[in-house]
């Protein structure tokens, strides 16, 4: 039985790599005891801002067995999105690298479904669910638990060989596997680059991010007006923010992604500052047709552009 667990786990990891995933780690589906007090304190201090959904399903966030019937294993996966492509106009409002190409939710879910299909084809009937930011799953905690990296001072998962420019996803299944039981040690050391560089002082202490101050939250999750206190502090970011990753020493090991779907839209990087400020609904629909940027809707992106361009 133990031999088959090891063999099946290796089969899954090999299949994940062939599908284009950068990492694959496996953990036992159980209650995340260490995360419970941290999550409770974070919510109690209102660091989730207007993300009310973070308050929902508290128990499910901490125990995947409440999320998936009969859950035995959490397969954590990472997929690289790093690119050295840049927006041509240095004065243009900035967009996070992860949103350059096709919406990662769509791309990764498709790969996860393929992986589940392979498991059923090669191993037998296995039930499970795929997750890409779509349900109350603490992806970084599971990735850390499976040895894919450590949680950095900017609250992102860091990996010694690949930095942090990668998406996380999970496949939770009702099958026992061989578990990775050696979480990676913390390699942040005395470095405080991310804390020092954050434009809005969202990293309120090592390993603690006040989500309500994070530029990614302000430009994507926040549906109301951006508070005036952040005027002139957004570093020209209009969708997401890469600052805490750009300054992280471990990202010198980032490698270019090979996922065709993450290739920037041909028009996106060439838009000048004036193009963004005068953007129409039609241009928005064309450039961001299959992009994660559609989450903000046209009105939300215009709000962001006007805010960072001092037009509000």
TrEMBL record:
Residues 179-208 form the 4Fe-4S ferredoxin-type domain. It catalyses: epoxyqueuosine(34) in tRNA + AH2 = queuosine(34) in tRNA + A + H2O. Its EC number is 1.17.99.6. The active site is at 133 (proton donor). Transmembrane segments: none annotated. TRNA binds at residue 223. Cob(II)alamin binds at residues 61, 133, 154, 157, 168, 216, 241-242. It holds the Pfam family Fer4_16. Gene3D superfamilies: 3.30.70.20. [4Fe-4S] cluster 2 binds at residues 198, 214, 241, 244. It is found in: Cytoplasm. GO terms for biological process: tRNA queuosine(34) biosynthetic process. The keyword tRNA processing applies. Catalyzes the conversion of epoxyqueuosine (oQ) to queuosine (Q), which is a hypermodified base found in the wobble positions of tRNA(Asp), tRNA(Asn), tRNA(His) and tRNA(Tyr). NCBIfam families: tRNA epoxyqueuosine(34) reductase QueG. Belongs to the QueG family. This is Epoxyqueuosine reductase. The gene is queG.
């Amino acid at each position: 039985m133990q031999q088959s667990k090891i063999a099946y786990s290796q089969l899954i990891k090999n299949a994940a790599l062939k599908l284009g995933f950068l990492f694959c780690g496996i953990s036992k589906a159980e209650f995340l005891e260490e995360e419970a007090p941290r999550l409770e304190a974070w919510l109690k201090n209102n660091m989730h801002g207007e993300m009310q959904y973070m308050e929902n399903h508290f128990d499910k966030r901490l125990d995947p067995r409440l999320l998936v019937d009969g859950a035995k294993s959490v397969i954590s996966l990472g997929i690289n999105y790093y690119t050295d492509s840049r927006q041509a106009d240095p004065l243009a409002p900035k967009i996070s690298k992860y949103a350059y190409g096709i919406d990662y939710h769509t791309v990764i879910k498709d790969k996860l479904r393929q992986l589940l299909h392979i498991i059923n084809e090669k191993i037998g009937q296995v039930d499970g669910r795929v997750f890409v930011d779509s349900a109350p799953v603490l992806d970084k905690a599971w990735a850390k638990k499976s040895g894919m990296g450590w949680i950095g001072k900017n609250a992102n998962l860091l990996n010694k060989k690949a930095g942090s420019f990668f998406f996380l996803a999970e496949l939770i299944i009702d099958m026992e596997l061989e578990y990775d039981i050696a979480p990676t040690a913390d390699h942040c050391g005395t470095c405080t680059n991310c804390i020092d560089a954050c434009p809005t002082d969202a990293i309120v202490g090592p390993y603690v991010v006040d989500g309500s101050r994070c530029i990614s939250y302000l430009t994507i999750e926040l549906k109301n007006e951006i508070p005036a206190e952040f005027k002139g502090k957004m570093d020209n970011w209009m969708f997401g923010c890469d600052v805490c990753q750009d300054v992280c020493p471990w990202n010198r090991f980032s490698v270019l992604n090979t996922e065709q779907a993450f290739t920037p839209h041909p028009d996106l990087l060439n838009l000048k500052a004036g193009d963004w400020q005068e953007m129409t609904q039609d241009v928005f629909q064309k450039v961001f047709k299959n992009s994660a940027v559609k989450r903000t809707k046209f009105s939300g992106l215009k709000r962001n552009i006007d805010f960072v361009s001092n037009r509000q």
